Amino acid sequence: MNAASKQQSIEDALLKSKKFRLFGLNADDIIKHFFAGNATIAIVVLALITVFLFREGIEFFPKHYESLRLYRWAGMEFVDYLKHESTDLSALNRMTNLMKRQESEVLRMKGLSQAQIAERLAPLDAFAAKFSEVPDGLNGLVADLTEIPVGILDRHKMCVNAQSHKTLLIRMGKIAEANAVKVDVIDFGKETAILKTFLPQCTEIHAKIKQDIVGLMSAIPDFESAEARATSLLFKKLALKFTDGIPVTEKKMAEWNPGEPIHFYRALTDFIFGSRWVTQSFWYDFYGVVPLFVGSFMISLLAMILAVPFGVGAAIYVNQMASKCEQNMIKPYIEFISAIPSVVLGFFGIAILGESVRWLTQQSCLSWVPFFPISERLNIFTAGCLLALMAVPTIFSLAEDAINNVPKAYKEASLALGANKLQTVVRIIVPTALSGIVAAVLLGFGRVIGETMVVLLVAGNRISIPDFTAGIGVFFQPAHTMTGLIAQEMGEVVRGSLQYRALFMVGILLFFISLFINYMAQKIVTKYRISAG
């Protein structure tokens, strides 16, 4: 076949393709709409996810508002004033045990026998025993008062169920049966009036607690351990703070009014700024997202502190300084990390990394570190290390692409002007590729903050705000994250319940955090792009 025949065959094929039509579209239009449809599908899926999240989560605030009102009406708020005091005294009791462990460890390191240690710790044991008796009267009063709101809530639930049953009978047309259903109305003010009759007894108990604490402060023994001395000073500070807060608590209890209205914004502020997340409690469920946010932020921050230098540094070295042999060896190994399942990394963190870190902190040569030894193998540090390992491939790949897109002429011009390779990288290559590197870091951060399985396995899952007074040691405390909580509780929650809605609100918060990260990435990339231009 000659060239003219080939050309004619090609023209005939093009003509046939243009003549081919499906639903009024030719082949070119079908291909164009097929690929354009992918973007449309992505937009539709994102819109459906957004609508689903907000549809399921937005009802949380009305439900939470009703829960807060019932919390006050039933008298649980009144009893919680004393419950908080009982919790504070329990924390102080735990500190006496901590002082005992710290002092015992130092005496053991000095070579004392168990009998000698017991003899030296006898004054501390006596002090701890006396202090453990301080909250007895308060705990008894709390137990008595707790029964009152619980009984009110039980009767309230019976009334709600009776009203629901009556409404159902009316809808079914069974009017006679509906009229036979008796629905009681609870007078919360009258029911909770009995609580204030306990105020004189509460005042007497407070006076005795204050007297006992002030008397025991002078009985705290001296310590040889620096850690025990520090804990002792903190103990005294918290104990005196507790006694100073007693008048404030008594004033709140005296002024408490079950009929005082609760503003709707409390449902929002208690969620965003609340410091407790307690679910499936016999008493009351609290939905404060602060401990979860702090846990997620600290783990992600530690992960990025570790991942960014390694990821960006490896990208610069592999792209600009490594030989071909080093590139062929380093690059595949780094990218292979992303292929390791997160659950496998979690098992590694539990069995190897966590145990190794705890063993290392128990070595005598590191006893000078203030927060060593650590007692928890599953903590923020373990989770942060593993998430850093997972973020390195993302940061490395995207940062290397950004560096690779820098025109070679920039590098050649710099070298021609007499700059060495390091000066060229630091002053020419990295600044030019900075927008891409920043984008890589932010995408790595998004990868870290959205991780679920690793943090669920190795973060410790303690829903509380870490103790920042521990300094750097705060990173060795257990924590929980927003993603881990959703994965942990969603499978057991009742659909449509307040807890169910709260978990979706946590998901919405994560959604907004992701949007904010992407927005900041776009702003930073645009800024450096304009600066480079």
How does this model look, in words?
- The chain has helices at residues 3-19, 27-57, 60-73, 76-109, 114-120, 122-132, 136-171, 175-180, 188-192, 199-217, 226-255, 265-273, 290-321, 324-337, 342-361, 380-404, 408-416, 421-432, 434-449, 453-458, 482-489, 498-532, and strands at 21-22, 25-26, 277-278, 286-287.
- By secondary structure, the protein is an all-alpha fold.
- The chain has three domains: 18-57; 74-256, no CATH class; 291-532, MetI-like fold, CATH 1.10.3720.10.
- The chain has a two-stranded antiparallel sheet with strand order 1-2. It has a two-stranded antiparallel ribbon with strand order 3-4.
- A hairpin with a 2-residue loop joins strand 1 and strand 2.
- The protein is flat.
- The two termini are 54 Å apart.
- The model has no long low-confidence stretch (mean pLDDT 86).
The low-confidence runs, each spanning 5 or more residues with pLDDT under 50, are none
What's the alpha carbon Rg, rounded to whole Å?
A: 32 Å
CATH topology of the largest domain: MetI-like fold
Shape: flat
**How many strand elements?**
4
Total domain units: 3
Q: Could you tell me the mean pLDDT? A: 86
Helix content: over 70%
What order do the SSEs take from the amino end to the carboxyl end, as H and E?
A: HEEHHHHHHHHHHHEEHHHHHHHHHH
Structure annotation, total helices: 22
Q: Label the structural class.
A: mainly alpha
Which band does the percent of strand residues land in? Answer: under 5%
CATH architecture descriptor name of the largest domain: Orthogonal Bundle
Distance between the termini: 54 Å
Largest sheet: 2 strands, antiparallel
> Strands across the major sheet, in which order?
1-2
Question: For this structure, what is the CATH homologous superfamily of the largest domain?
Answer: MetI-like
